[in-house]
Structure prediction request, 317 residues.
Amino acid sequence: MRELYPATEPYRVHALAVEGPHVLHVEEAGDPHGLPVVFLHGGPGSGSRPYHRQFFDPGRYRIVVFDQRGAGRSRPAGCTDANDTQRLIADMEQIRESLGIDRWLVFGGSWGATLGLLYAQAYPDRVLGLILRGTFLASQRDLDWFFKDGVRHIFPDAWEELVAPISLPERRDLIGAYHRRVNSEHRRERLEAARAWSQWTGRVVTYTLPVDATGSLADDEKLLHEAAIELHYALNRYFLQPEQILDDAGKLPAVPVTIVHGRRDLTCTLEAAWRLHRVLPAAKLVIVAQGGHLASEPAMIDALVSETDRMAGVLGG
Prediction:
């Protein structure tokens, strides 16, 4: 079974000013002359982690990792002003141009897979290939699964905790109710809402892990920032038209595509990967029997590192 590559430090870090008040944290690691790859984190709003660089052979890849608007070490933290999907796509192109990269491999998981597909549709000539993990199509059926009448039937106890503070009429629009609370003028209400939201999403995403491996809640400010961005995007239906990604599948470039999905993923179900594969029949679909949603799970690491190695060979890295 494949493991992550050894930890490496960035050889260059950038603070890239983009439109509005935003300054993006951008890192380059690996071989400066290697095959360019950009890593897209999930969320929206979760930010990148040091281990994200370790999915790639540092002797073969020029690894670009960045924090999206308002996320991680980008500034201002948690800012939702001038923060939408179309701007994130434009940010990727600005990063590519600023680093002098002609074309790159796009690697994205969960919301990062969404963003990767949208970027490839907008800039097909700049994409060498796609590796997508835990595909999220950002459709209404995806939102309904997670926040209405899907996974609640598997985690009724956690669901009851999530909806307990919300009045019955407000539960018809749970995302709207939590968005109002996370943006309340009262810090205590904001923090309680962010904690409840984080506990629900965390319970589902980590259910395949041992209890002692699920970690603890982040600090208060980080919780507030992540919840604010995640709810901002969910409330606005990710700034996309219904079924936009599948409807625009014909805009994707004719490049190698790998779709990696854990069969045990209850955050972004396998159905999404299957629907994507139906419109991209030439793509390689890897169903990880023992995998859940998280890229850090051993079975997912094995599948993803295997694919980055294979893709380096296919693309000549």
User: Anything to note?
Assistant: Residues 136 and 180 are 25 Å apart (CA to CA). The mean pLDDT is 96. DSSP finds ten helices and eight strands in the chain. Residues 140-238 form one domain.
